[in-house]
Every structure is written in structure tokens, then in C-alpha cells.
Predict the 3D structure of the following.
Amino acid sequence: MAFYDGSKAVIVLDPAIRNWVLLPLMAIMLLVGLVRHYVTLLLASPPGTAKVDFRDTRQTQALMRSVNLRRHARHLPPDAVRARRSYFMDAFKAGKYLKATPKAVANDDGPAPPDMAGMEMAMDGMKKNMAMMVPQALIMSFLSAFFSGFLLIQLPFPLTVRFKSMLQSGILTPDLDATWVSSLSMYFISFLGMNPVFGLILGQGNAADNSRDMAAMNPLAASASASATGATDIPMPEIPQQGMPMLPGMGGADKGLEKAFTSETEYLQLLDVDQVPWIGEGIEDRITALLTARVQRR
Amino acid sequence: MAAVAPSFDDAVQELRNQRSSMDVNPYRTVELARLVLKRGRRLGDEVWAVLEQSAMALLDLGMIEEAQKDIDVLDRKFAGSTRVQKLTAMVHEAKGEFDQAMTLYNQLLEQRPADTTLMKRKIAVLKSQRRTQDAIAALNLLLDTLPSDAEAWLELADLYASSHMLQPAAHAVEEALLLLPTNHFVHATYADLLYSLGRRDLALKAYCRAVELVPGYVAGLYGVIKCAREVAKDAPATPDAPPCESYEKLAKVAEQALLQAYDQRAVVAGREDSAAVRAARAWLTGSEM
């Protein structure tokens, strides 16, 4: 009984698998996504009502302003850059932008007071993470309990042998083509690809989008995107991110910012305004050449 | 203006782009919105955003009754919403009822303390009431907390310039420049202020930068020509400054570029130069100013 047809084994799956596993799985994923979208909408508070302590914003924004100065210094005349540099250095040293919390200054190493606004943001972030992780965990346990140990589908694109251990988790057969996959792997693959479907049904910017959640989960991607925004050319101080689930010691964010201000002051000191390649240097000649070329071309 | 009316989908997309960009042309918005709202059902939930956009554009153009009609539709759907009330306050502003507008904005700010658009509208009211110094103070306060808003810095520069406080205006434009370093319009604005402050050498560099970013930028080219001609006449600023011949050369080639731009426009428009263009040509090719 040769099942081999050249290099591929001819396998025919029971149609019951399609009816009772594949279609319900797709339906469940779709419905869970829709539920996630509507639940997020219900949980979200209207914009602008979140309790924002503007002193926090002011701190971070002042830091960003200084970073921006260092990043784009070459677009301003040197005198303007010099004036701003000395202003920021003086202001940061005097702690002008710091949110003054006398308790945090008094006991340096003791437990810092809990930061209410920060707590709320952390809770909000955790709620969103929960909304995403819980359904995923549930579905995965459901699948591995009920739908393990058999093949579900053959993928339409070729795969190398390496993928077998990943995609055929319950099925240990050395000869089986890697394109045949189990239900858990089908779940993963569909999970990754569901975004366009949700985009069609729910419109753009829907809350069932898992790309943002993936970025939040994946620290590598987060740091990659941070450096990709062009911050690689200048050193940046460590700014503790708000909205990440930090539990006890939320007041530590304030201390972190004090350090950020100190390091930013150092970076400013290191900025040698004379070395900055001002775009205005020799620009008249550049423009003469540019316009001459332009006039001659047409 | 497009000779052919855009298709429904193109109009919707263009309206979406306008919502996210700062650069809005209210005439175009109203034109597109009218087209799109005729078949409003096709938009689904987007129709509300388009209605809001259309209401604001109509208020920009002073068509208050029609704006009020759009706002009434929104009010029926979203009764008591802060966002709709903001539009109502804008109607008060358009009618000149500034005290009512201000009271309403203050009320809304109590419900939404973090909404920066409300804070900016308050400043707009102050500006309309010609309380320029109050507007400047309020805007400075806003920018102290939220300095990464280029539009706000440019507005501050505008307010300072209208009060003849040119140095602070230049400072504000520099902040906007740090936030939008590749925007030719900001460079040209900076150049205008520098010129008014008497720093023609720096103004020339800034105009040059505007032209470097957008080589066909007519305002930039005019700036280059005027500054280059004048700097060529002045004594050199520093001993190692470029000699005046190089400035004259720059002025000449900029003139040619500008004339070329006018020629191209004449070709595209397919008709004679208007009187303004003829005067400009005379200035360019005629005597040095």
C-alpha cells in the first residue's frame, strides 16, 4: 500500500475535521476578536477625562525639548543654540522643571510615596493587557485539551523540515511533510493574520488589532522601533516610561526623572556648539549651485 | 481647484487626510463635505467626523447658519457630548458672543481637564477679542507645559509679531523650527522675522534653506533675491565673509529661477501673464532696488 506519489505522501483528511474543528476555530477567533473590540470600547474612558497631572507632563516634555535641541541643533544659528543650551543647563541644575515632591527628597532610599496618577495609568495598561492575554490563554488551553493529536490542515505554501517541531506539536512522525500542521499552529498562524479581516469588518484602528499588543509584549521590537525613530545619532537619557505596569514603588519614577535631568545636563555640556555642522554654513554657495543646475536643466 | 468633481471614495480619503494634517483649506473642505454628505449613509460611522469637519470649515468661512444645521444633526445623535458643545462654543465665537464662548469653554474644561484643544480655543477667543497680551500670557503658560506643539509656537510668534515684539517672535519660531526642521514655510517665516530684525545675512541663509528644501518655492526665491542684492551692497560682515560678487551671482541665478517658474506657470495656465506677474517681472529684470 504505497502512499507515496513521488516525493509527497497522499493524505486525505476526514471531512469531519474540517466541519468540527477548522470552521469552529475560525468562527471562535473571529468572535473573540469582535468581543475584544467592543469590550475595549466599553472599558475605555472618553478622551481628555483621564486625570493627567500636568506637572508630570511638563517634566518629560522639558527633557524632550532639550533632547530635541541636541538632535536638531544644526538647523538653528549657533547663537540661538548657545542661548538655549545655557538656559537648559541652568534650568535643569536649578530643578526648575522638576515636580517638587518634598517627601522623595527627604528619604532617599526609603519607599517612595505612591503616585496616584501613575497608578491609574498602570491599571489602565494592565486592563488592556488582560483583555488581550486572557482570551488568548483560554483559547490555547481549549485547543490543546480538545484538538490535539491530529492534523488539521495543509498549508498552501512550502515549508522546510525545520518547521515540523514547531508546527506539528502533538504529532511525531518523521516522514510527514512540514506543510501539514496541527490545530494549535493553525491558531497561531491565523492569529497573526487576522488583522486585515478585522480591518474589513470593524474599520481601521479597531481594538481587536493585535499588532500593538505584540509590540508591547516584545521588548526587542520596542527597542528596535525606538532606535529606528532616528534617536541613534544622539545619546538619550533613560526616561522611565509611564503606562507600564509598575506596581510598588511607583514614586521611583520621580527619582528616575531626576537622574534623567542630570544625565541630560551632562549631554548638554558635552554638546560643543562650534562643532555642530550648521546648515547655514556655506549655504549661499550650495544654493547658487542648486539654482544654476535647475535653470540650466529646463 | 479641480475641474472634475472627485469620486466619492477620493473625497472621503481627502477629507480623512485633512483631518489629520494641519494644512486645511476650508473652501475645499466644504466642497468635499457637501459631495460626501449627500450620500451620507455610505459612510457609516465616519459621517459624524465629516459633519464635525464640515461644521468647523463652515464656521471658518462665516457660514454660520449652515454650520448650525450640521451641529444640530450632531447634537441629536450625541446629546450632551462635550465635543458637540465645543462646536456650539465655536458658533458663539463666530457670532462674536465671546463671553458666552469663554464661559462654555471653562465649563467644558472642568469636565475634560486634559483637553488641549479646549485650551487653545480659549486662547483663540482672547485673540478675537484683541486681548493680545492675555492671549500671549495664556499661550506661554500652555507651551511651558506642552512645548512640543509647533503650531502653538507659530501662533505665539504671530501674536508677538503683531505686537511688534520681534525678538520673542523669532525665539518662538526657532522653537517651531526645532520641531519641524525640514519645513520650508517655517524657515521662510524665520527669515522674514530675521529680516525685520535687521539680520539680513542670517535672513538670507534662512531663505536659502527654504529654497534648498523646496527649490521652486516662490516666496523663498523672492527672499533670496532681495537679501542677496542688499547684502551685496553692504560691507562684509566679517573678514572671511564671502565677497559681494558671490552674492550678486546668487541674486542673478535666483532671478532666473524665479522667471523660469513664472514661465512654467504661464505655460500651464495657457494664458497671458496677469498684471501682478508683469510687475514682478519688471522688478526682477529692471533696476536693482
Remarks:
- Chain B has 15 helices and no strands.
- Residues 125 and 145 of chain B are 20 Å apart (CA to CA).
